[in-house]
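Dataset card, provenance and construction

Sequences and ligand SMILES were collected as paired inputs. For each pair, a complete structure of the chain with the small molecule in place was predicted and serialized as structure tokens. The example below shows a pair involving pyridoxal-5'-phosphate. Curators did not alter the output after generation; any descriptive sentences attached to a record were derived from the structure itself.
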Amino acid sequence: MTAVPVFDYGEQYRSIATEIGDAMTQVLTSGQLVLGPQVARFEKSFASYLGEGVSCAGVNSGTDALVVLLMAMGIGPGHEVITVSNTAVPTVSAIRLAGATPVFCDVDPRTALMDLGQLEQHITPSTRAVIAVHLFGNMVDIPALRRLLGDRSIRIIEDCAQSHGARLNGQMAGTLGDASAFSFYPTKNLGAYGDGGLCASHDEKLIAECKKVRMYGFEQTYCSVREGLNSRLDELQAAVLNVKLPHLADWVKRRREIATWYDESLPGQLQRMVPNQGVDHAYHLYVVRSSQRDRLRAALSSMGVGTGIHYPHPIHRMPGYEWMGMGEGSLPVTEMLAREVLSLPMYPELGRERAQLVIDAVNRAVSELS
Ligand SMILES: *Cc1c(COP(=O)(O)O)cnc(C)c1O
């Protein structure tokens, strides 16, 4: 029996069920199901959540937010995009869908984020963008990345699928690069009840271009001014997001509280991922490291504590990416993390009691294993 699942949205849904039901009924009776007033409202609200001067375009998923941004920037065949192998597969699928070539930089073992010290060696004349993945809710130091890139015309795209609500020196994740991509997949810090995503940028023109790309390249109906695809955010999901967005700050705060309890009470010998300098971590995931990860995971499972592994296979070692020709040992830190990382239960409604069950179970499991 799982007493504490790694993620559960049920309690949160019950707390807002009436509002969600009303919002959905309003959409269904409005006669507008796709790219209507709910989407427009959400784009505006999310932009002001991010900060002044930000524009947003709602799309169908986080993957598509990256694809649409790359297409809108004119990045495609013949171009290279540097990112990490230690991410969710969609970061890389998006680069491929846009027709560009992914290039992997290894990560820092303390943060699991791109190791900026190794970036330079991956830059070539074909490099057009870096997708910086703010993994787990931590953040890549974007100003440092910008300094490294200097005056080369290489765009910085922030993959914010796991970092809604994170800040670096007070600035929101998603406002530091040239553009950013958000996902509203149900498990994310802000989750819809289905798929959803969003492109954000201070560059209004770029977002206007994204709005063409997301609908066949249309500016006005039935005439493509450029090539595009179909990646629209629908009204039902936007209505859900409009109900949920006002709660996001509180939900992120609760994630931080849980992380603090874990930080204080988990066994000292268990290695933690550390927030980067100046980062208010958004704790999409709370990740620890152990050389006995699989035994620890089995012990926790037998005590009713669910865990996750983000991620068990580095992308460059997956069968689907064999064509990249990157053997074992090509990204040593990424490969080590895949063997050692473990994600503990983390969601805003977890609460003190269940967090304590997790803490007690981890302490017991770790002392039994050592
Ligand atoms: C979830 C996720 C995505 C993709 O989002 P979808 O909405 O599932 O397409 C991209 N990058 C990262 C790091 C993610 O965690």
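Derived descriptions for this record:
Residues 10-30 form the longest helix (21 residues).
The pocket of pyridoxal-5'-phosphate is lined by residues 61-63, 87-88, 90-91, 133, 159, 161-162, 183, 185, 195, 197 (CB under 6 Å).
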